[in-house]
Design goal:
3-stranded antiparallel beta sheet; 20 helices; single chain; 46% helix; flat; mainly alpha; 489 residues
Length: 489
């Protein structure tokens, strides 16, 4: 069957009873029996699996997915009105782009497969099919996709109707982690039993050899009394037991410390993070986390960790979705990673001003960023003059007015700025030498503040523009030196 409309998609299956649609866990605490062998159950019950999967899926879904046309290697045009852009932004009447991408990445990370159904309407639509309910027929290439609904109904789809993400015979990372996850499940099952048993140590009660010998009815009676008082649901669980006839309690279980529960749980999280190539501080393991290495790991997340997954999704969309539209000439999609990797506003402003060499934003643009209304003053639409330097020519918008470049000022006599920079370095060394390690000194280095102070010191000597360049150069060299000391490069 080839689905052509959203209405037809809804009619593929009949409503199932609520008990068939539920996961079967209900409100019980029995998390591991029976369902551990399915990937879905592992994701639902193992926090060390859900944490990295949800972390990656949410970070990918947050990225924009704009559509571009590549005119040349140095020229590309964004196509916000392309039909593909509309489909990706509104895949179907009940799904947003964020939800579609998040569910797709979750399916891919859990099953190593993800599926979209093409709904060929006007306009076209996309619907995510649960990967756990899909199967593939084929050896080298898929010849048929089969969706098995929760009520058991099987619906075949031709390859042209499905967008498939992942290899034909992809192996889920959970299969590789299965033994480690089984150990975690067994440890959790043991802890659950311990709490069910009033959190007491397991053991045996010994009677001395000289004690009077019990008859079977006496032994059974004493056992019943003990269980009624101190067993599960007993009248006095957790209270101090009084033994008789020289009896002693002998523990036979390992303590939580001897069993290394915490170390085992930490190891499981580390192994799961490593399986998905996530830097450990990103999933809450902060033993060796510092400000500088977390900042670098954030960059690694979108280059080394998520980079291959993003490239795979982009490639499959270009291969399987783009041909569905009329305008396909050099059309491609690309996740907007730059929005996640750009620094704080202060860092962006400093780097842009350093690259441009003068103020680069008008008053109206700045007020727009702060959600403030325009003042109506025409001067607010022009870029202010460089402080201490020549004014930037204002754009008149009238092509009849010829552009007159500002003449360059006469070269000033050379001024030695080395003493000012050396004084800054001496002050900085005195302040940073109080810190114990080179890494601490690198983290305490406040580049924007030093740049600002040095610019103020140099401006009376060489002017604001030259002072900014000299300060930025000196601070960059100082930062490189501190970085080399910290990491022993």
């Amino acid at each position: 069957m080839i689905v052509r409309t959203f209405e037809g998609l809804r009619a593929l299956t009949t409503p199932s009873p609520a008990w068939q649609m539920s996961s079967g866990h209900g409100g019980a605490l029995d998390l591991y029996t029976g369902s551990l062998q399915t990937y879905k159950a592992i994701y639902e019950t193992q926090p060390n699996v859900r944490i990295p999967v949800d972390f990656l899926a949410r970070n990918v879904a947050q990225l924009g997915l704009p559509v571009f046309r590549r005119n040349s290697d140095t020229d590309r045009v964004r196509l916000p009105d392309h039909d593909l852009a509309h489909v990706l932004e509104h895949p179907n009447p009940t799904t947003t782009r964020y939800r579609l991408i998040e569910d797709t990445v979750q399916d891919y990370l859990i099953y190593w497969h993800a599926y979209w159904l093409k709904v060929r309407t006007a306009p076209m639509g996309l619907v995510r099919l649960p990967a756990g309910e899909m199967s593939i027929v084929g050896t080298l290439q898929p010849s048929l996709f089969i969706w098995t609904a929760p009520n058991g109904q099987r619906t075949p789809f031709e390859p042209s109707e499905i967008v498939h993400f992942g290899a034909l015979k992809g192996i889920s990372p959970l299969e590789t982690l299965r033994r480690i996850l089984a150990e975690e499940a067994a440890a959790g099952d043991y802890r659950q039993s311990m709490w069910n048993n009033a959190s007491r140590m397991e053991g045996v009660i010994e009677r001395p050899a000289t004690a009077p010998k019990w008859t079977p009815p006496q032994k059974a009676s004493w056992r019943t009394q003990w269980q009624d008082a101190y067993g599960v649901g007993g009248s006095r669980p957790g209270s101090v037991a009084v033994l008789e006839d020289g009896m002693t309690f002998k523990p036979i279980s390992f303590s939580a410390k001897d069993s290394e529960f915490l170390a085992a749980r930490k190891l499981t999280r580390e192994e799961c993070a490593a399986a998905y190539h996530i830097p450990l501080p990103m999933v809450g393991i902060l033993e060796h986390a510092t400000y500088s290495n977390v900042r670098e790991m954030r960059k690694m997340l979108y280059s080394d960790c998520l980079g291959p997954t993003l490239e795979m999704i982009q490639g499959e969309i270009e291969l399987q979705v783009v041909p569905e539209f009329a305008d396909v000439h050099r059309v491609y999609v690309e996740f907007n990673i730059a929005e996640k990797l750009k620094g704080s506003f202060e860092e962006q402003a400093a780097s842009l001003q350093l690259a441009v060499g003068k103020p680069w934003m008008s008053v109206s643009e700045a007020r727009g960023l702060q959600n403030l209304p325009a003042t109506g003053d025409p001067k607010d639409d022009t870029i202010a003059a460089q402080q201490g330097g020549p004014a930037a020519p204002a754009a008149t918008g009238d092509p009849a007015v010829p552009f007159k470049p500002t003449p360059k000022p006469a070269p000033a006599a050379a001024v030695d700025v080395a003493p000012v920079i050396q004084a800054m370095q001496a002050r900085l060394k005195t302040r940073l030498d109080k810190l114990p390690t080179a890494l601490d000194r690198l983290e305490a280095f406040d580049g924007p503040r030093v740049t600002r102070e040095l610019t103020e010191d140099l401006t009376p000597l060489v002017g604001a523009e030259q002072a900014g360049w000299e300060a930025a150069r000196a601070v960059s060299l100082e930062l490189i030196r501190l970085d080399h000391e910290a990491f022993d490069v």
